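Hello,

I think I submitted the magnesium ion job twice by accident. Can you confirm which output corresponds to this input? Input:
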Amino acid sequence: MGTQVIDKQTMELLFDFENEGEFIIAKGGRGGKGNTFFKSATLQAPKFSQSGEEGEEKNIILSLKLLADIGIVGLPNAGKSTLLSKITEAHPKIANYAFTTLIPNLGVVMRNEESFRYTIADIPGIVEGASRGHGLGLSFLKHIERVRGILFLLDGSNLELEQNLSLLRVEMEEYNTNLKERPFLIALNKIDLWDNEESFTKEIVDKFKDLGEIIPISADQNINIDLLLNRMDEVFFKDKIIGN
Ligand SMILES: Nc1nc2c(ncn2[C@@H]2O[C@H](COP(=O)(O)OP(=O)(O)OP(=O)(O)O)[C@@H](O)[C@H]2O)c(=O)[nH]1
Ligand SMILES: [Mg+2]
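Support: Only one job matched these inputs. Its output is below.
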């Protein structure tokens, strides 16, 4: 699922496997039944067969776009993979340097005693100029084109939140301007590194409230992770969660 079938000559999108299903890319010619088809009780080894018509021929490109519900977008080293490892069963590589994640990782988040689940993608870190090919470029951004919501993950050890968020937005929207319209939340990670964590958190959330809703967390120390997941339910999946 998530694979797009593209005609290599015309670059036309032939089919998009948004759901499980079947699609005939090139139809075989009519006829062409082999000799076993003509086997019967009296004719155990028929020596004849039917010649068939030519079938269709096509050169195609199969392009996989992951179908994640939510995409985690952040600068390198913000803690995206750490968060994924805490809220899903995924085991992405985590390390204290940029570009640890080279290809997107997917995980499944279970909610409400598993009555509701969604997929979340941790994509490689985005750097300035990514849309012009810097860093790992943006080719992996195709994996978030179809998300229903974006979780921006900012690194609390750098308080230039406005600049960092705008860098991510610019690069992302450069790639696909539709991503601008997508619902989002901002998680501010690594708050465990702050002194006077509680009062400082209040101060920061207030100072940057114009950026959008900011949820202070520590992925590594499991601070406010439940709060974040609850807000994600409300902001991204209101239509899906029944009885809440
Ligand atoms: N103190 C602290 N460190 C954290 C926290 N979350 C992640 N880290 C550390 O930050 C570093 C980067 O974490 P990753 O999860 O690999 O970051 P990433 O965003 O996936 O990085 P890339 O894949 O390179 O883009 C690691 O050393 C983590 O242990 C946190 O909440 N608090
Ligand atoms: Mg990573």
